[in-house]
Amino acid sequence: MADAVIRKPGFGAAALTFLLSLLLPPAGYLYIGHARRGLAQLAVLLGLIALPAFGPAALFQSAAGLAAYVALGVIALLAFLADSVRLLLMGRARRGLPYQRWWVYAAVVAGWFGYGFADDALKQADLKTVRSYRAPSSSSLPTLRTGEAFIATRLSDPLRRGDLVLYRVANDARVGRVMALGGDRIAMRNGAVVLNGVELKREAAPPFVSPAGEGMPARELPAFRETNAEGRSYLTLDLNENGFLDNADEVEVPAGHVFLMGDNRDNSLDSRAPGAVGFVPEANVPRRVGLIYWSRDSDRIGTVVE
Asked: Roughly how many angstroms between the first and final C-alpha of the chain, as a whole number?
């Protein structure tokens, strides 16, 4: 059957085209008879989806890179939406084409369901270059606050002392800072870290103001700036002068393992607790923490963690 041009599209056709283009690409273009543009839309969309999964981690390790990616996605989405509706309103939609059949639209739906299953499989196998997480507890205060959403990228180079990383204990994903590598000797002395016999530089910093919540008022917590031998610097909290884990005998980290600690030193179950965490195999440390992309404190959105 020869295709026909719709000269006077109604509001319903325009709304349906918009929704199909937004929710079920490339069905919007198929509906108005422009399959080639639909394939272009699908190719761009799949490319944007593939970037976090398989693209360079460096793109998502800065606020500028993340903003550029989001802006590109929004611009592409709006451009395709506007183009599909424009074609319809200009009377350039066509009907009666071979691919305008119910089973073609059903195949598009099935394809997106298939993508969902594939995406879940990639997450389960932890194969994506970039993944998003939420800070599950206060163990990394003041660097990460409970509930903040952050990006973690797969390791592309060896772990370094001072890295804030995502690691696995049993089936749990946790956040900790690499304090010592395989072959290092580490101890705790009155709340200070002693690495290979040398105490890390530790200076008092302005108090961290813990936000009010769960019936508790805002309060000031003692903070310190710690600097390791490589010059990497980060903030820590020391809630109690004689905390349970403030003193620990020297141990040597086995080869292929790391010693991890939370920045909230008196409220973190980490490598200082041998029975609970202990030395963590490097194979169980797959990602570095990158930047915060959501926080109740809007000033922290886009912050690259120390």
From this structure: 64
Residue-level pLDDT at 1: 46
* Chain segment 123-162, per-residue pLDDT in tens: 777 788 889 999 988 899 999 998 999 999 999 899 999 9
CA 289 – CA 132 distance, rounded (Å): 9
Asked if residues 61 and 304 have their Cβ atoms less than 8 Å apart, the reply is yes
- The domain 130-300 is classified under which CATH number: 2.10.109.10, 1.20.272.10, 3.40.50.80, 1.10.490.10? 2.10.109.10
What backbone phi and psi angles, to 5 degrees, belong to 106? Answer: -65, -35
CB-count burial class (<10 Å; 0-12, 13-18, 19+) for 252: middle
What is the per-residue pLDDT across 187-204, written as a single tens digit (0 to 9) for each? 999 999 999 999 999 999
Determine contact, residues 182/205, Cβ cutoff 8 Å.
no
Q: What is the pTM of this model?
A: 0.81
d(CA 124, CA 134): 17
- Name the residue among 263, 271, 267 with its Cα closest to residue 236: 263
Task: Identify the H or E element spanning 81.
Answer: helix 63-89
Q: Which residue, 91, 108, 117, is CA-closest to 28?
A: 108
